[in-house]
Design brief:
1307 residues; 15% strand; 42 helices; ATPase-coupled intramembrane lipid transporter activity; nine-stranded antiparallel beta sheet; disordered N terminus; EC 7.6.2.1; elongated; transmembrane helix; alpha+beta
């Protein structure tokens, strides 16, 4: 086909079937454009489906008044640009014989191919190897499948369930009303459903049901201990606060939905594009999108402003990637759009699904069956870039778009501490029932003892003795049995706050405050990406302080994921080892020589690339030797075998020479789906092979100043099975070659083996690959070969068949690729450096000192991973490396058994021998198991015994071995060995294998796990771990969106865990214990009172005092301390990482502390009740006056108790603690001033008496004295690490003490 011929002849346009009812034609008249420009000389891409489409063409053209002039200007501009270019194109007749365009297959990977990159670098939702599948099955058995890769179901296209889209005919498309409109809804509630639905969600908390039952009991007349309205107040308050919060959040969602649904787009109607609201767009309608506009729904491209049908989109909102993606309109429809022809057709596509990286469909257009793939569809949420306009037909709208189907939230996680709290709540419930039982039995015995006196006793007489109408009537007396039962129920109502309902809302507010300060921490702000720390989950702040295992990705997490081309092995010779930058003068000469060949035009890369002068000179020699040819094809492969997009901009020259000062420089930047690809293409450009144009059917490369056009006949993209990528191109001289690059493990097996020279090159290249890997470089092998006419024809036929297959398309394409990816000639290899992030070695060392094990799970090859492990201090020279590389189950079993025997690792039963493996686990960490010594004993000097321990072990295992090991019989063997090692490094692992490793630890230990990663392939691991951290990196934001916390750099993990994690755990642990104490001391005081009042379940306190106690009187100080208290400064926590061990040793919250707190509570309640009782024993004080005294005393007592434990006093802490006491007194004054209340005016009488104030003072002293003495003795004789460090902190701040005990703080 010559460049001047139209792609579609008139005969093809006339093809129609008269037996079909035709949809209304899509008619566009955008100016005469009867033949396409030279750069459009290619035909259709892959042909996808076998179904037939029925359509008709109408010769009538309607003029679109609104857009015709705009489109005409665009086309004229495009045509003028294209016609100025000349290319060395292939012979048109030969090309027409093998008519095939670049088939951009559906992309199944977030990150494309790469040398020793993570070969399975995809979301856990994508295609995985058999190993990953087995892991997934295992994890499903363990009921964690909802956290795995179930998101993207395999949606094969079958004739019976295909979706039919009639282009420009939405009525016929949706004639059965089965498709949704384009209106989206992310809100949870409506006005009608808000109340019932919100209450249903809130009452999932069992404690709320408990308080609802209490309130319901209080409504019954025999049980009305409190006022009926008052008893509902605490529950209603908590429910209302939560409902308001939920309602506000949902109102914001409604507002966002309304704004989104009311946006407008141009939709074809009656031959013209007219504005229409997004929510009214329907499947089958034709929509036009202009530059920088958002895509309103999932659309198949029909045409673009570029005559070649290419469009650039940004998928930031969909997958977080900022780099541009290429999408193509099929050439058949593109030419029809540009020529103003009617577009009528039928699209058969798969049913809506979540897979954003795959789309299977076909289109029948003018008698042709045209395949459609992921490269032909643009999705809702994307944005059009660098393209003036595109036109497409809607296939999925509204809730059926892939973006909306993928909008599910991450699985919710519960705090470990909250689980422990529920255990203690159960104990309190048992204690509560015990007290109620005592009261009920006491009531029954008392009634039995005084049953003959019930007619005359003041509170139990059966008959009214009044002069009114009730005289002689009987009381509602139900008999001793029922009275005992009612007494039991009444006691539950009186003692209800033993289970602290306020604790739930207090914890929510405290976590919110903690998150605010974590987000605002300037030490966790990444200026390079302008990203702050993010708290995406508020439920697990305190878990950050109890982490024992960190599972980290390598690429983009430990490293920057900014690739730099460093080394090249070309034809058996290595380059780049000695020369990092070419000599500036020589570089200038080379640049001038290159510039002269293109008439003064130079290419300027966005970033400078280091070049090897020897390799550069080789490329510029006029030699025809094998080495020169190999070097030429090597860099040609780097420039051609990729999917990157060149972005050209004109800029003034920055060259200093006078002759170049005023010349134009063509600045070029590359947008690719992988940093590896961008680095390789940039390197090729630096060596004189500049890719500067890419369309769907050809590429143009500037080869040392000469523009050459290469027709792209086919492209096999990288996949995790083949682990390579290939492209079939036709050279300007009509030669056809296949250029291949891929991982060494998959490339050496398909090389030609019958040439002696090739054997020498192969061995040399393998040696270079080993050398590069040992330096931590990511490696890639490059090869190529010529294709004969017969091979090309066979491949094209099978390629077309595979592309149009409805089922197993990926498998058939792999089989087709195998036809040409064989007997390749080795050209060389590349080494790309992925530099470590700043502070990674220091962070890993700090985590190790803190007793946290760091495991690295990466897709890189073993040598690269080991090298990175050494450079980041994960591995050290003195470690014994255990390497497990097995190719069968028996081999893996033997390797594990040998390693365990060699290093004396015992086989343990998982949880029941927790102590033994923890000893192994803690070779050089501060750990004394909880069942062997109290958790609060000093650990500061425990490290002195480290020298007696066995040498450190490092386990290195590959993904192939994990295929066989992650089965039930070998998992325990791996667990025993891995937990005995100081470091575990997993190489070549798939996403689900990462999740399987995390699950291995979670299922067999009680330790907390944290997973950190930056890519889509880390999502499964992040969701599986107890805490998931996402890195805002180069690979998009899937990891961030699936995470609980997100940050910009790995080094921030040190501060997140050692500082904020420690603070949060210490605060929340104390908060829970204090809330239990605060409510229990109040309830026990009421219990002692009831025992002294004939078990009558009456109360000396007013109803409002009982309600306000935990809601108003004592809540604010708890919240303030939970947010602001700090036991140690951040500098001390960073300086002494071993202090972090207090968290995973549960020093701030454990069963022992709980029972000690309850014993202290028992003592304080006795003091609180009996001191006022004996003080006023001989007085005539009434019961309500005693109630006022107890109310003031208990509030003062619990606040002084809190003040004793506060570590850091700031102004707001003083206001909260002392202000609460003042507010309580003020409330008492107000309540006692209301005449209708029984306690009217009591406070005014009491406040005048010195005895009142002395009694409160005596209560405080006697109640808190034992606690004070125990704390003093414990800190003097058995100080904990934290107490020693705190003392050192204080001494450092006091100049007069400097130098007194310099060693104590650093012990």
């Amino acid at each position: 086909m010559t460049s001047g011929e139209p792609l579609l002849s008139s005969s093809s346009r006339a093809s129609n079937l008269s037996s079909v009812v035709h949809p209304p034609p899509l008619t566009l008249n955008i100016g005469s454009f009867n033949c396409l420009c030279p750069n459009a000389s290619f035909s259709s891409s892959v042909f996808d489906d076998a179904q037939h489409n029925f359509f008709d063409l109408n010769d009538e053209d309607f003029v679109s008044v609104r857009d015709s002039s705009f489109c005409k200007r665009s086309l004229e501009r495009s045509a003028s640009l294209v016609t100025t270019k000349e290319f060395h194109s292939a012979d048109s007749q030969f090309f027409q014989q093998f008519l095939l365009e670049c088939p951009v297959q559906e992309r199944k990977r977030m990150v494309s191919w790469g040398g020793a990159m993570e070969l399975h670098n995809s979301s856990a939702t994508f295609e995985i190897s058999g190993a990953s599948t087995r892991v997934q099955e295992k994890l499903n058995k363990s009921q964690r499948s909802h956290r795995k890769s179930h998101q993207f179901e395999d949606n094969l296209l079958h004739e019976e369930n295909a979706r039919l889209i009639y282009i420009s005919d939405p009525k016929r498309t949706n004639d059965k009303y089965e498709f949704t409109g384009n209106e989206i809804r992310t809100s949870k509630y409506t006005l009608i459903t808000f109340l019932p639905k919100n209450l249903f969600i809130q009452f999932h908390r069992v404690a709320y049901l408990y308080f609802l039952a209490i309130a319901a009991l209080n409504q019954l007349p025999p049980l009305a201990v409190f006022g009926r309205t008052v008893s509902l107040f605490p529950l209603l308050f908590v429910l209302c606060v939560t409902a308001v919060k939920d309602g506000y959040e949902d109102w914001r969602r409604h507002r966002s939905d309304r704004k989104e649904n009311n946006r407008e787009a141009l939709v074809l109607h009656s031959g013209q594009f007219q504005l229409k609201k997004w929510k009214k767009i329907q499947a089958g309608e034709v929509v036009k999108i202009c530059a920088d506009e958002a895509i309103p729904c999932d659309m198949v491209l029909l045409g673009t402003s570029d005559p070649s049908g290419i469009a650039y989109i940004q998928t930031m909102n969909l997958d977080g990637e900022s780099n541009l993606k290429t999408r193509y309109a099929r050439q058949e429809t593109t030419s029809a759009v540009l020529e103003g022809d009617s577009i009528l057709g039928l699209i058969r596509c798969e049913q809506p699904n979540r897979n954003i990286y795959e789309f299977t469909a076909n289109m029948e257009f003018k008698g042709q069956k045209i395949s459609l793939s992921q490269s032909n569809i643009i999705l809702r949420g994307c944005q059009l870039k660098n393209t003036e306009w595109v036109i497409g037909v809607v296939v999925y709208a509204g809730q059926e778009t892939k973006a909306m189907l993928n909008s599910a939230e991450s699985p919710s996680k519960r705090s470990r501490l909250e689980g422990y709290m529920n255990r203690e709540t159960l104990w309190l419930s048992i204690f509560l029932l015990g007290m109620c039982l005592v009261v009920a039995i006491g009531m029954g015995l008392w009634l039995e003892r005084h049953k003959d006196q019930l007619d005359t006793l003041a509170y139990y007489r059966k008959i009214y003795f009044t002069n009114g109408r009730d005289n002689g009537k009987t009381y509602k007396y139900y008999g001793i049995a029922m009275e005992t039962f009612f007494s039991f129920l009444s006691s539950i109502i009186v003692f209800q706050i033993m289970i602290p309902i306020s604790l739930y809302i207090t914890m929510e507010l405290v976590r919110l405050g903690q998150s605010y300060f974590m987000i605002g921490d300037k030490h966790m702000y990444d200026s390079s990406t302008d990203s702050r720390f993010q708290c995406r989950s508020l439920n697990i702040n305190e878990d950050l302080g109890q982490i024992r295992y960190v599972f980290s990705d390598k690429t983009g997490t430990l490293t920057e994921n900014k690739m730099e081309f460093q080394r090249a092995s070309v034809y058996g010779k290595s380059y780049g080892s000695s020369v990092l930058m070419a000599d500036p003068l020589q570089e200038s000469n080379i640049a001038e020589a290159t510039a002269a060949a293109v008439g003064g035009r130079k290419w300027k890369l966005k970033s400078e690339i280091a070049v090897d002068s020897e390799l550069m000179s080789l490329l510029h020699r006029d030699l025809v030797g094998d080495e020169r040819i190999a070097a030429h094809e090597f860099f040609l492969t780097l420039a051609a075998c990729n999917t990157v997009i060149p972005i050209l901009t004109h800029s003034p020259s920055s060259c200093c020479t006078e002759s170049q000062r005023h010349e134009d420089v063509e600045a070029i930047d590359y947008q690719g789906e992988s940093p590896d690809e961008q680095a390789l293409v940039s390197a090729a450009s630096a060596y004189g092979y500049t890719l500067f144009e890419r369309t769907s059917g050809h590429i143009v490369i500037d080869v040392n100043g000469e523009k050459q056009r290469f027709d792209v006949l086919g492209l096999h993209e990288f996949d995790s099975v083949r682990k390579r990528m290939s492209v079939v191109i036709r050279y300007p001289d009509n030669a056809v070659k296949v250029l291949v690059k891929g991982a060494d493990t998959s490339m050496f097996s398909i090389l030609a083996k019958d040439i002696e020279r090739d054997d020498h090159t192969r061995h040399a290249t393998q040696a270079h690959l080993t050398e590069y890997s040992s330096q931590g470089l990511r490696t890639l092998v490059v090869a190529a070969r010529d294709l004969t006419d017969a091979e090309l024809e066979e491949w094209q036929c099978k390629y077309e068949d595979a592309s149009t297959s409805l089922t197993d398309r990926s498998l058939k394409l792999r089989q087709t690729a195998a036809l040409i990816e064989c007997n390749l000639n080795l050209l060389g290899a590349t080494g790309i450096e992925d530099k470590l992030q700043v502070g990674v070695p220091e962070t890993i060392e700090s985590l190790r000192q803190a007793g946290i094990k760091v495991w690295v799970l990466t897709g890189d090859k073993q040598e690269t991973a080991i090298s990175i492990g050494l450079s980041c201090k994960l591995l050290t020279a003195d470690m014994q490396q255990i390497i497990i590389n097995g190719n069968s189950e028996d081999e893996c079993r033997n390797l594990l058994a040998d390693a365990k025997a060699k290093y004396g690792v015992k086989s343990l039963n998982c949880r029941n021998q927790n102590l033994e493996w923890k000893k192994n686990d803690e070779i050089d960490y501060l750990e004394i198991p909880a069942d062997k010594k109290p958790s609060n004993l000093p650990q500061w000097h425990a490290g002195k015994d480290e020298g007696m321990m066995s040498p450190s072990l490092a386990l290195i295992i590959d993904g192939n071995s994990l295929v066989y090991i992650l089965e039930k019989d070998l998992e325990s063997e791996l667990f025993n060995l891995a937990t005995s090692c100081r470091v575990v490094l997993c190489c070549r692992v798939a996403p689900l294998q990462k999740a399987g490793i995390v699950d291995l630890i979670k299922c067999r230990t009680d330790d907390m796990t944290l997973a950190i990663g930056d890519g889509a392939n880390d999502v499964s691991m992040i969701q599986m771990a107890d805490v998931g951290v996402g890195i805002c990196g180069q690979e998009g934001r899937q990891a961030v969106m699936a995470s609980d916390f997100a940050m910009g750099q790995f080094r921030f993990l040190e501060r997140l865990l050692l500082v904020h994690g420690h603070w949060n755990y210490q605060r929340v642990g104390y908060l829970v214990l204090y809330n239990f104490y605060r409510n229990a001391v109040f309830v026990l005081m009421l219990f002692w009172y009831i025992l002294c009042t004939a078990f009558s379940a009456t109360s000396a306190l007013t109803d409002w005092s009982s309600v306000f106690y935990s809601v108003i009187y004592t809540s604010v100080p708890t919240i303030v301390v939970g947010i602001l208290d700090k036991d140690l400064s951040h500098k001390t926590l960073i300086q002494y990482p071993k202090l972090y061990g207090a968290g995973y040793r549960h020093e701030s919250y454990n069963m022992q502390l709980f029972w000690m707190t309850m014993i202290d509570t028992l003592w304080q309640s006795l003091v609180l009740f009996y001191i006022p009782l004996y003080t006023y024993k001989e007085s005539s004080i009434d019961i309500w006056s005693m109630g006022s005294l107890w109310t003031i005393a208990v509030v003062v007592l619990v606040n002084i108790h809190l003040a004793m434990d506060i570590q850091r006093w700031v102004l707001i802490t003083h206001i909260a603690v002392w202000g609460s006491i003042i507010i309580t007194c003020a409330c008492m004054v107000v309540l006692d001033s209301i005449p209708i209340f029984p306690n009217y005016w009591t406070i005014y009488h009491l406040a005048k008496s010195p005895t009142y104030w002395l009694t409160i003072l005596l209560i405080i002293i006697v109640a808190l004295l034992p606690r004070f003495l125990i704390k003093v003795i414990h800190q003097i004789f058995w100080p904990s690490d934290i107490q020693i460090a705190r003392e050192a902190d204080i001494l450092r701040k006091r100049p007069d003490y400097l130098g007194l005990k310099p060693d104590r703080g650093s012990s």
